[in-house]
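hiii so my PI (J.) wants the whole complex modelled not just the main chain, which honestly fair. so below is everything: two entries, each one labled with what it is. i double checked the lines twice but i was tired so who knows lol
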Amino acid sequence: MQAELIDTGALQRSIEAILFVASEALSIKALAKLTGAEESDVTVALQKIDEDFSERGIVLREIAGGYRFASAPAVRDAVEAYLLPPKTNLSPAALETLAIVAYMQPSTKGDIEGIRGVSADSVIATLLDRRFLIEAGRKEVAGRPILYKTTPEFLESFGLRSLEELPPIDIDAGVPIELALPIPTQLTDVATDDTPIHDESETPSTS
Amino acid sequence: MNPAPAVDERACRVSFDIFDGPLDLLLSLVKEQQLDIATVPLAAVADQYFAYISAMVELDVEIAADYLVIAATLVFLKSKALLPPIPLEFENGEESAEVVEARLRERLIAYSKYRDAGDDLKSRALEAAAFYLRPEGGDPVAEVMQRYRIDASKLASALASALRSARPEKRTIVRERVSLIEQMEFVVRMVRLQGRASFFALVANLDRVAIIVTFLAVLELIRRGRIAFAQSEAFEDIEFLPAQPPAHSETAMSHAS
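here's the output for the full assembly
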């Protein structure tokens, strides 16, 4: 069985077929497991597929930690004659929120609000609804706030192979942004109900 | 800059859509004047900030407390910049303007970095939109199960607890009484009255149990020789006729009862 598939033609065809029917990105590892081939052979076959499809209406796309077939950008108009273009219009607030979670995940509503300075309820609801964010357990601090992380759909919709592909942002995510409000002592009473959002003991959640 | 009157209503309505929170407003004001966020005295944009706030007041828009907190900070920074430094002996331990400003600046910088990251995401999304992927199968049940982490055992225990807490429903079940003897008498009567009787006609409009009892009655009557029967084909209607020697039928009946 294994020997048969080392035949690169057969392996390539198997991978093509799997990627054709899959509606998610499949990693080299997953493809190796599915075909019973070595990861190195899968890599070679993927390169071959990529070359073979370079002039086609379909392209091989490395995305969200794996590979998927996608329509070629050159034939976008033809595809959109058939499919309605997806909603891409995220508000700046949603994009910022997504960026915050993408860089700091898992993060809580409080983390987001701390950085953006406004309530994040509706924007989080939108992002959950669009399946760019998903709940990732609860942070073990007072109130056990819900943690959020980004989804594979996020990577796919933003054309990212992985989170590492995001450009570095020179904010040390580990350093809590000071939220005790920068106001003179005479006015602090106004803001005492503003509990600090960043817990000093930043313990990574187990979930 | 003279604040409130300069801002006309329509312009403000537009602005309310644009600014998303006090940091957004502050950052936009700094950028508007092409000032360097890292070095600009934040008090420099205080007037524009107040203009915006007073426009909101004018338009009777509900102002989030966060806007006012930052406004207070700007007032503080501005007053510190205008007034001569407080002599050391009057320092009451409150934070210096420098510390307060540095902290606000830090927040503003952090915010601006994520705003830039959001812009970066937007351009990536636009690029990625040129590629269409096979849509997911869209199994809404699977989606719900995944989202709420439901599995069969959870469903089962949820159902069990629902059943446990459910009030038992009282219900009276009346047994349909169809007596074999009565049906036998009925069949005999019909055969005698009409000279013949069809099974289909006898059971027409009867319920399941009554049909079965009627059939049993017929079988018993045939066994006892009380009636004769004829059927042209299997599953066809059965016709009943009076038994040949009707004379000794009474004796048979008395055995049954």
